[in-house]
Amino acid sequence: MIVTAVAVGTRGDVKPLAELGMEMIRRGHEFRILTSEAFRSLIESKGVTFIKLDTDADNVMKYLVTDYKTSLDFAKGMFRLKKENPGFMEQTLDAIKGSDLVMYGTCAAFARHAAEYLHIPCARLFYSPMDPTRQYSLYCDEFNSERVLKSYEGLPQGMSLMTMIALNRWRHSVGLPRWRISSSYTEMSGKKVLTFYPTSPVLMPPDPAWGDHIHVTGYWYHPEEASNGYEESKELSNFMKSGEKPIFVAFGKAESPELARLQELTLEALRKTGIRAIVQAFQIPEKDRVNTDKLFFIGDLPYPYIFEKVRAVVHHGGNTTNGMGLRAGLPTLVIALALDQYFYGRMDHRIGCGPAPLYIRKRLCSIDEIADSLKDLISGRYDAKAQEVSQRIMKDNGVVTAADVIEKYVSEKSNV
């Protein structure tokens, strides 16, 4: 079996696919990922085949994360990426030829059209809810209400409108019917499209109304392998031994003046509270990354490794990072940049694993607000629930579940 995944996004979009690819390769299949050159080493380190898509990963981060504040910003970002790589459809067609299944996420929905042209079945994957449910939504702060369900209205039409503008000329050129506002990404050749959510059902319980083509599998990672080869520095070891267990604060590598300011405010909040912390803050100038008995600055390291060493975690709320922290039993504070991160921060709080999230797309938080949330985070009120959730997430085996579903799906398709 040959599976080709198409990924336009950040490291958080690509790494789970590489982890799934490892599992598929272990089973004797071929797994390929079409994505930016920046992720070649990550993908090839997992033994997965890398195929280059001429998309600048830094621009993807800028257009779709740091510059993204409204749905219009997202659409503008997608069209800017399209303009930067006018040959993306030809690259996609070349990459997926001979595949038994094509996988794609929200920002790579163009792969669906290439697969349709080549008569290859597809699988959608999302890291946050995209299929309508009344249980939860990116677009509504409530839970379990008709207002939640209504918040999904307009999403399919918005996707279709973007597709009509961006791809109808190409569809016409290859003889495919024009995409219409009523066309649907949830169906292909009259059948429901296989859909994956690589997150834990603890945070995203599947809606029974969705049907059996949608799978909330658990996270796609191998945390037991993530720390292989990592050696803790003597300085970090000494810091860990010199006082109470610290928290871990990680802000990723997205860059903007707003994020730089957030990192400065968080450091001030940490100093104000006196909470010991290991800090990963790449936008803090190097001259200001001064280690003390309370703060220790660190660069790249495996998150599953450091999560075993700390008492709580603060991060932006990306799906995989959030899952690894909960799996480690850590109370979690999310300071979100985007809707999906804010969603996971709200879910963490709802299940009792951390304070209410701070969302800087609404307003940059103050030192006092961050300090209050940090004190709440380590108050002890979330510790027992975080340990309980950890035990539940430990039972998930997302890569195995997803691989089982793919094998069964492709086998059934080939026997039709």
How does this model look, in words?
With 416 residues, the protein is of the alpha/beta class. It folds into two domains: 2-219 and 397-414, Rossmann fold; 234-394, Glycogen Phosphorylase B (Rossmann fold), CATH 3.40.50. The protein has 16 helices and 15 strands. The chain starts with a strand and ends with a helix. 43% of the residues are buried.
Summarize this structure as a short list of keywords or feature phrases.
Rossmann fold; alpha/beta; 416 residues; seven-stranded parallel beta sheet; 2 domains; globular
How many angstroms separate the termini? 16 Å
Number of domains: 2
CATH hierarchy class name of the largest domain = Alpha Beta
Q: Could you tell me the radius of gyration in angstroms? A: 21 Å
- Fraction in beta strands: 5-15%
User: Structural class of the secondary elements?
Assistant: alpha/beta
In summary, what is this structure?
With 416 residues, this protein is of the alpha/beta class. It is 43% helix and 13% strand.
What's the topology here?
Blueprint: E1 2-6, H1 11-26, E2 30-35, H2 40-45, E3 49-52, H3 57-66, H4 71-84, H5 88-96, E4 101-104, H6 110-118, E5 122-125, H7 146-150, H8 155-173, E6 187-188, E7 191-192, E8 194-197, E9 214-216, H9 234-241, E10 247-250, H10 257-273, E11 277-280, E12 295-297, H11 303-307, E13 313-315, H12 319-327, E14 332-336, H13 339-350, E15 358-359, H14 367-377, H15 383-394, H16 398-414
Parallel strand pairs: 1-2, 1-4, 2-3, 4-5, 5-8, 8-9, 10-11, 10-13, 11-12, 13-14, 14-15
Antiparallel strand pairs: 6-7
